[in-house]
Structure formats: C-alpha cells, structure tokens
Specification:
The complex is a heterodimer of chains A (109) and B (114). With 109 residues, chain A is an all-beta fold. In chain A, 0% of the residues lie in helices and 57% in strands. In chain A, 36% of the residues are buried. Chain B has no helices and eleven strands. In chain B, 0% of the residues lie in helices and 45% in strands. In chain B, strand 4 and strand 5 form a beta hairpin. In chain B, strands 2, 4, 5, 6, 9, 10 and 11 form a seven-stranded mixed beta sheet that branches. In chain B, strands 1-3-8-7 form a four-stranded antiparallel beta sheet, with no helix packed on it. Classes of the chains: A mainly beta (109), B mainly beta (114). At the A-B interface, strand 5, strand 9 and strand 10 of A face strand 10 of B.
C-alpha cells in the first residue's frame, strides 16, 4: 500500500531551527509537496520538490532524496506564527496526491 | 470573490438528511477536488474533476456524489448523511490536472452528523 509517515507533533523554541521529516512509500513518484495548515484554516502551499536536493525559499527549505523515499522541511528563525501543522504529500504515478497525517509544530517563547 | 469559496462553513445535520456542500472558484482552474480531513488522518480524496463535464472517484467516494456542470462550481452531495461523515470538508482547485500544480483550498466546511 501507499504510505506517508511524519511525526505527529514537535516542539521548538522561538528563534531556533526545526526539521520536520517525511518518509514515503508510493506507487511511483511525481513530486513531493509541503503545505502549512494553521488550526481551523485551510492548507496553504509551501514547497514542491521533484528532483533530489534542497530548495530554499526564505526561512523555509525543503529537501528530497528519491532513492531514500525521504524529505524534510527545515524552518529557520522560528516565529510564533509558525505554530501550525505541516502536511507532506506525494504525487503518485497516477498524479494523485497521497497525504501524510501532518506534523503539529508547537513554538514556545 | 477571489479564490475558492465554500458554503456553508459549518452545519449540524440529522442522520438520513440530504446535504449539499457548495464550492465555487473564480480562478478558471480546470481541476477541482473534494477532500475530507479527520483527526489523525491525512487528507482523503472523495471525488475530483479534471475539467468541466467530467468527474472521478477518489479514495473514499461512497455516500458522496459530485457534479461539474461548469468550470467554476463543484458541489458535493451527501444523499443520506451518516455519523461517520462527520468531518471537515475541503474543496480545492489547481490550474492543471495530472500535473504538478499546487492546490488552492477553500476555507473548509465543518459538518456534524447526529
């Protein structure tokens, strides 16, 4: 079956760096997405990786290793507003998105 | 409006009743999707439409139906609601189908079936 694994919850301190991991097993691969979802709100797009390596976008970076079925989202200079759930999703060979359950990130002052 | 709009935002419904969740987008996106989100689970695709006039079944289609009469609207109907359909429902759209376009989500419809 298809599976996306990410930690349920993580805690970090304001101003610090946090890495949220995502491992996947899917039938085919056409890219990996990260979305941010604040409590009670809709998910919003953060990043997309289809080739191995690191994609940097401001304070957020996303890494992909297709051979390991692994990605991480790196958040630097954490701010209180970064408290949210972070959803990892993989597009399979049928171009359908398979979603992880999300990682709830708690930022403490 | 700008983006994707869902209605209602919240609804309490008696089991057995019929309910339609509305979704409208003004971005002229071809592809539209309905997801449900339950605690501890990832978003699960209910139905999708790659273009006006076509629809397809997702991972959890039973008990739901959709239609896509035009580009902008993609309503989701629960013919006879059951408590297990209590969930938060998100409508989403993307500019391309079968490609790598990001999804744009509506604000969600929280449905409680008693």
């Amino acid at each position: 079956g298809q599976n996306i694994d990410q930690p349920t919850e993580m805690t970090a301190t304001e101003g610090a760096i946090v890495q949220i991991n995502c491992t996947y097993q899917t039938s085919g691969f056409n890219g990996l997405f990260w979305y941010q979802q604040h409590a009670g709100e809709a998910p919003t797009f953060l990043s997309y990786n289809v080739l191995d390596g690191l994609e940097e976008k401001g304070r957020f970076s996303s890494f992909l290793s297709r051979s390991k079925g692994y990605s991480y989202l790196l958040l630097k200079e954490l701010q209180m507003k970064d408290s949210a759930s972070y959803l990892c999703a993989v597009m399979d060979s049928n171009y359908q998105l398979i979603w992880g359950a999300g990682t709830k990130l708690i930022i403490k002052p | 409006i700008a983006g994707i709009t869902q209605a209602p935002t919240s609804q309490i419904l008696a089991a057995g009743r019929r309910m339609t969740l509305r979704c409208t987008q003004d971005m002229r996106h071809n592809a539209m999707y309905w997801y449900r989100q339950d605690l501890g689970l990832g978003l699960r695709l209910i139905h999708y439409s790659n273009t006006a006039g076509t629809t397809g079944k997702g991972e959890v289609p039973d008990g739901y139906s959709v239609s896509r009469a035009n580009t902008d609207d993609f309503p989701l109907t629960l013919a006879s609601a059951v408590p297990s359909q209590t969930s938060v429902y998100f409508c989403a759209s993307s500019g391309t189908s079968g490609d790598t376009g990001e999804l744009f989500f509506g604000e969600g419809s929280r449905l409680t079936v008693l």
